[in-house]
Design brief:
The structure holds three protein chains of three kinds.
Chain A: E1 29-30, E2 36-40, E3 50-51, E4 58-59, E5 64-67, E6 76-77, E7 82-91, E8 99-107, H1 127-136, H2 149-152, E9 161-166, H3 175-182, H4 184-198, E10 202-208, H5 212-224, E11 230-235, H6 244-252, E12 267-271, H7 272-284, E13 290-296, E14 304-309, H8 314-321, E15 331-332, E16 339-340, E17 354-356, H9 377-381, H10 388-396, H11 400-405, H12 416-420, H13 427-485, H14 497-511, H15 529-556, H16 561-597
Parallel strand pairs in A: 1-14, 9-10, 9-12, 10-11, 13-17
Antiparallel strand pairs in A: 2-8, 3-5, 4-7, 5-6, 7-8, 13-14, 15-16, 15-17
Chain B: H1 2-27, H2 34-42, H3 56-64, H4 76-87, E1 105-109, H5 119-123, E2 129-130, E3 138-139, E4 159-163
Antiparallel strand pairs in B: 1-4, 2-3
Helix pairs in contact in B: 2-3
Chain C: H1 17-39, H2 42-64, H3 69-73, H4 77-88, H5 95-111, H6 123-134, H7 136-141, H8 157-166, H9 180-187, H10 193-198, H11 200-203, H12 207-226, H13 233-249, H14 259-264, H15 268-275, H16 286-306, H17 313-330
Helix pairs in contact in C: 1-4, 1-12, 2-4, 2-5, 4-5, 4-6, 5-6, 6-17, 12-15, 13-15, 13-16, 16-17
Classes of the chains: A alpha/beta, B mainly alpha, C mainly alpha.
Chain lengths: 598, 193, 352
């Protein structure tokens, strides 16, 4: 790929205050063990995982407890040993504050661990085995959206360059920095494993120039291990250089085409934390149960980086770190792209790289009441070269089509435009709102098209039924007219005389019939034989009518002949039964009367 | 002489352009009545009949013939504005006393009370109720348009209209607090902010 | 717990409209001081009248619009418009010309179009055009002759106030002169360039002082560039436009004004760095700004050379303000990952 040391400068970008030294001065520590681990079963696309354990089970750390049946979700392992106390809705780390079905483990001190079988020499095993190991360990992309890593290692195109993302451009976050300082050799080993699986030509480890210790550690690791095809590139500090597409441009000058993935260029980007977890899974057989998380903010007593078990409730972290009972806000992620966590009982997830607990002055709430002065600064800083000002007007005045045409969906929501806006306008919120409204509109359109189709189908069906009824009525009228005019016709009469006589007799009876009676005679104590006789006669009438219908249908060669034949058969059965019931009742009556008389 | 030439020139120009326009009118004539289809595609397809027409397509045809555009409560003001935009007419407030931005609802049958009379099945304009005579009736939630035409025919009044609950999957950001502050259009200054 | 989630980002760059306005004001101060030094207290008086009228008329219109008066007044934009008007008007302009211009700028051009950030035209330039056309006599005969050791005798502040209030300078003799550009244009037909430039009229006449004023505005503009309040695109476009046109058509100084006078005379520097960069009325993308600046520059040259007015920044800017949305539409930047600015134009190799 690129053999020279050229770097392409990031378009736009900003330089917010970094605040990194609040948390990167200390080595990675551990908090005390939480009492509860909460592991939500929901996936962002709506799918739910199926637990493979039950309430009351004892689980070991690293044991598999839930799987999805869709490929774009990772497995869920127990982060600590303990007992499954519940599988119920619990708060999750989501801006909405809603709950989701979660597995709750009450931890114990047993320290029991379950690991996958060790692979002694990963250099000699097959790619397939390594990829399966990644899947079994539940490795997800720890730098961003948590996409299952094993899918990235089965791309549709050949990957030539692996980019290892140690950039960490967002302020406050230092988890990748300290991980690189302390575990650089494992990260490099993970890179080598990844290179082997992909059969890629080379790898680039990218680090921003504000992390000199990490750069030194990686350099040392590269020298120590056999790494002829891994290069270290130091890039200038600028937000958002660490975004996948932006980083690819900075390192290679190529742009990922809109709507495509980096694999289309033969590039794969992996976070250093993911590669560390990958190495742990392959070499030590450890499933993904913990990650490095930065805990920072002025309201925190002990800011720094911690190994945190996945599923630790934020409340536990707060108990260990801050005096405020009700913090001003809890931000999960960085200050530029992180979100407010409404409920402190929500747990840490695989992609939580930072928790900020700030004071009010540190991260104040911004009002949004100043008008846009059209200064154009937002366009100067957009890394995707969009026109944020135009998108703002489109979103504010609900011009959804225009917004889409102005490439709204290419926005990566990095927040650079909102950061620099002199009027404090919450631009990113407008874009998120616009995106969701456009998606809703698309869904509504699909739904309303569906409703229109159903309505039209129903209209057609009703019209067809009405037309059929009309034609049948006409046919019967015609047949009746024919009967009248065919009285003398002996060669082909529509009905034979017996049937005719029966019909006339039944019609006479119907005229003289009494009010309706039920045929549930066996339920009643008093058996009305007269009623039974009438009921039987009624069924005979129905049979006669059905016979007439069948004859007409047969003459017309209608398609309903077989159906009518079956119906006629059933009706004749019923008539027989009614006759038997009546006869039995007569017998019973006779017997009873005889008994009584005797 | 000059006047006669001038008149002849103008007449011939008129003839040429008239012929051109006539030819274009025939050659490039749009098929069918596309306006009706366009208006219909903006209507919400609830087929509820609240506009006074038996379905959305008939109402769209009526609008194309000059009927008022503000009779569709399920569409809300968004639909009125979209139709006004399409036909280049003025936006008028909604005719009905309902909410300007209606919340989508779905019908749900309280199955304990259902008697299986099929009256609601016959009433549903999009066949969204599943059931048969003397068998349980149930609303197919994904097909229900919330038109509430099934409520009246039900003899035991066992159908409720409920809001579609928000799940994590359907939650979305609302616009910033002051987004309605159309801070810069003088025409809206008279309205309360 | 937190009820309404606030969207990321949770940090901001100390946003403030007021600070931008104050920086632009600060950048204008050197130019204003130079103007006062060379052309008298009139400029200060005009600026003060304009600023107070601007604040006053803005309060009235805000009241009518049911807006928060204190908040809008303190963002500094009205004060800045007033200052622009004060700088652009002739030194001896009557007070009522200033007042009318300012009221028009604030009420009509700014607020009736929607307020801050919504003006279609540059308010100061629109006001200048209005009073120039409506009151041609005060506007063309009120330009002050350069004062100081090489010019006429300085008038005192009190005398300037008198002129302003009375609306006429007839009490004082020989205090006015045509603007340098006007002077050159009318007199080049009779004399050669060397004669014109060497005469005492110029070394202590109209040309004296105007170059200093332009240098002061250039300094202010560079200060704004350094503070990243403006970008280089519009000023470069304007100066290129004027410069290239002068090179092409003004090669002979005996016929037309030479390039040096175009660049350093008149309101070129003020226009380049302060007027063509007014964010609300100019093009938004960088390419668009260059084209906007070029358009202003070319039009300025054309009107100055072949038109009736001696200085044409105001009119050129107004004409280009008309064209700004059109320029915007055709100069949208290419989006990352696309071969164009609009949806669907993916790079080759993409599947959309």
């Amino acid at each position: 790929m690129s053999n020279n040391d050229k770097l392409w400068p990031l378009k736009g970008g900003i330089h917010p205050a970094q605040m990194k030294d609040v948390s990167n001065g200390t080595p990675i520590k551990q908090l005390s063990q939480p009492k509860e681990i909460i592991l939500p079963l929901n996936h962002s696309n709506g799918a739910m995982a199926t637990p493979c354990v039950n309430v009351g089970d004892q689980v070991k750390k690293g044991q598999l407890i839930a799987t999805f049946n869709i490929p774009v979700a990772t497995r869920i392992h127990a982060s600590l040993s303990g007992t499954i106390t519940a599988i119920e809705p619990r708060a999750i780390a989501h801006v909405s504050g809603l709950q989701a079905q979660s597995i709750v483990i009450t931890t114990d001190q047993s320290g029991q661990i379950e690991i996958l079988p060790k692979i002694d020499d990963w250099k000699s095993v097959s790619h397939d085995l390594l990829i399966r190991r990644i899947e079994e360990a539940g490795i997800a992309g720890l730098g961003g959206a948590g996409f299952p890593t094993q899918i990235k290692y089965r791309p549709h195109t050949q990957i030539n360059t692996l980019i290892v993302n140690g950039v960490e451009c967002e302020p406050y976050i230092t988890s990748d920095d300290v991980l690189m300082r302390e575990h650089s050799e494992q990260i490099v080993e993970g890179t080598l494993i990844a290179l082997k699986i992909l059969s890629a030509k080379d790898a680039i480890i990218a680090i921003e120039d504000n992390k000199p210790e990490a750069i030194g550690a990686i350099k040392a690791a590269l020298n120590k291990l056999d790494t002829y095809n891994i290069r270290l590139r130091v890039i200038p500090t600028k937000y958002p250089s660490g975004g996948e597409k932006q980083l690819i441009y900075i390192l290679t000058g190529q742009e990922v085409s809109s709507g495509n993935i980096p694999a289309s260029l033969g590039i794969l980007v992996q976070n250093v934390g993911t590669l560390y977890a990958l190495r742990q899974a392959v070499v030590d057989g450890e499933p993904l149960t913990q990650r490095v998380m930065t805990l920072t903010g002025s309201a925190v007593n002990n800011p720094g980086n911690y190994w945190v078990p996945i599923g630790t409730p934020i409340q536990h972290i707060m108990n260990e770190s801050t005096r405020d009972l009700i913090p001003h806000k809890i931000v999960m992620g960085g200050p530029m792209m992180g979100f407010d966590v409404p409920d402190a009982n929500a747990p840490i997830s695989k992609i939580t790289n930072c928790i900020i607990i700030p004071t009010k002055q540190e991260l104040p709430t911004f009002s949004d009441s100043n008008p846009c002065i059209r200064c154009g600064k937002c366009e100067q800083v957009c890394p995707v070269n969009l026109l944020p000002q135009k998108l703002y007007w489109n979103a504010k005045y609900h011009e959804w089509e225009q917004a889409e045409l102005n490439s709204l969906f290419d926005c990566i929501e990095c927040g650079a435009c909102s950061w620099i806006c002199p009027s404090e306008i919450s631009l990113v919120q407008y874009y998120r709102y616009a995106k969701s409204e456009i998606k809703k509109e698309h869904l509504d359109k699909v739904k309303s098209d569906q409703a229109r189709h159903r309505f039209e189908d129903r209209q057609r069906r009703l019209e067809k039924l009405a037309a059929e009824k009309e034609s049948k009525r006409k046919a019967r009228a015609a047949a009746a007219a024919k009967i009248q005019s065919n009285k003398d016709n002996t060669t082909e009469s529509v009905l034979d005389d017996q049937a005719k006589a029966d019909i006339l007799a039944s019609l006479a009876r119907v005229k003289a019939k009494k009010p309706k009676l039920t045929t549930k005679v066996l339920d009643t104590k008093v058996v009305d034989t007269k009623a039974l006789e009438l009921a039987w006669q009624k069924t005979e009438d129905v049979v006669l009518k059905a016979k007439a219908k069948l004859l007409i249908a047969q003459q017309e060669n209608s398609a309903s002949v077989p159906a009518l034949t079956t119906a006629l058969g059933k009706l004749e059965e019923r008539a027989k039964k009614a006759k038997l019931t009546w006869q039995d009742a007569v017998k019973f009556d006779a017997t009873t009367i005889d008994d009584i008389e005797q | 002489m000059i006047i006669i030439i001038a008149i002849l020139v103008l007449l011939s120009l008129a003839g040429v352009f008239g012929a051109l326009l006539g030819f274009s009118a025939i050659r490039f004539k749009p098929e069918g009545d596309p306006v009706v289809a366009q208006i219909d595609s903006l209507l919400p397809q609830t087929q509820c009949g609240q506009c006074g027409h038996p379905g959305c397509k008939p109402y769209a045809t009526a609008i194309a013939n000059g009927e008022a555009i503000n009779k569709c409560p399920p569409g809300g003001m968004a639909t009125v504005e979209a139709i006004a935009n399409l036909l280049d007419v003025d936006v008028v407030p909604l005719d009905a006393e309902t909410d300007e931005n209606p919340i989508p609802l779905v019908a749900i049958i309280r199955e304990d009370e259902c008697i299986g009379c099929t009256k609601c099945i016959q009433a549903c304009p999009v066949d969204a109720i599943l059931g048969a005579a003397k068998l349980m009736h149930t609303v197919i939630e994904s097909e229900c348009t919330g038109c509430d035409l099934c409520l009246e025919p039900c003899p035991v009044d066992c159908i409720d209209m409920v809001e579609i609950p928000t799940t994590i999957h359907t939650w979305s950001w609302s616009p910033p607090e002051n987004h309605k502050l159309k801070a810069n259009l003088i025409v809206t200054d008279g309205e309360s902010l | 717990m937190i009820l309404t989630p606030s969207s990321s980002p949770h940090i901001r760059n100390n946003p403030s409209i007021t600070s931008i306005m104050l920086w632009v004001t600060a950048a204008l101060i050197p130019g204003l001081i130079t103007l006062i030094y060379f052309y008298g207290w009139g400029y200060l008086i005009n600026s003060l009248i304009a600023i107070f009228t601007a604040l006053g008329s803005e309060s009235v219109i805000l009241r009518l619009r049911h807006r928060n008066i204190y908040k809008t007044l303190t963002d500094g934009s009205a004060m800045l418009t007033g200052l622009f008007i004060g700088i652009s008007m002739p030194g001896f302009a009557p007070w009522w010309v200033i007042v009318i211009a300012t009221v028009f700028a604030i009420v009509f051009i700014k607020h009736l179009y929607g307020g801050l950030g919504q003006n279609l035209f540059n308010p100061a330039m629109g006001a200048f055009a209005l009073v120039l056309i409506s009151f041609p006599v005060p506007m063309t005969t009120s330009w002050v002759a350069p004062m100081g050791p090489n010019g006429i005798e300085r008038l005192s502040l009190y005398e300037h106030v008198q002129i302003s209030i009375r609306g006429t300078h007839s009490d004082f003799d020989g205090v006015t002169m045509a603007t340098p550009l006007d002077h050159y244009k009318t007199n080049i037909q009779n004399k050669t360039a060397d004669e014109l430039l060497e005469t005492n009229e110029f070394s202590n006449g109209p040309l004296y002082g105007i170059i200093w004023v332009n240098l002061a505005f250039l300094f202010g503009g560079l200060l704004l560039l350094a503070k990243k309040m403006i970008t280089w695109h519009a000023p470069t476009g304007l100066l290129l436009g004027v410069g290239v046109m002068s090179l092409l058509f003004s090669s002979d100084p005996d016929i037309r004004m030479p390039i040096s006078l175009h660049m350093m005379g008149g309101a070129t520097m003020l226009g380049a760095f302060f007027i063509a960069t007014d964010p609300a009325s100019t093009a938004t993308s960088n390419k668009g700004k260059i084209i906007f600046g070029l358009g202003v520059g070319v039009l300025t040259y054309i009107i100055r050379t072949w038109g009736n007015f001696p200085d044409a920044i105001a009119f050129s800017v107004l004409i280009m303000n008309f064209a700004a949305p059109f320029i915007d539409y055709y100069t949208r930047p290419r989006v990352y990952g696309k071969s164009g600015s609009m949806k669907g134009y993916s790079l080759r190799g993409g599947n959309k």
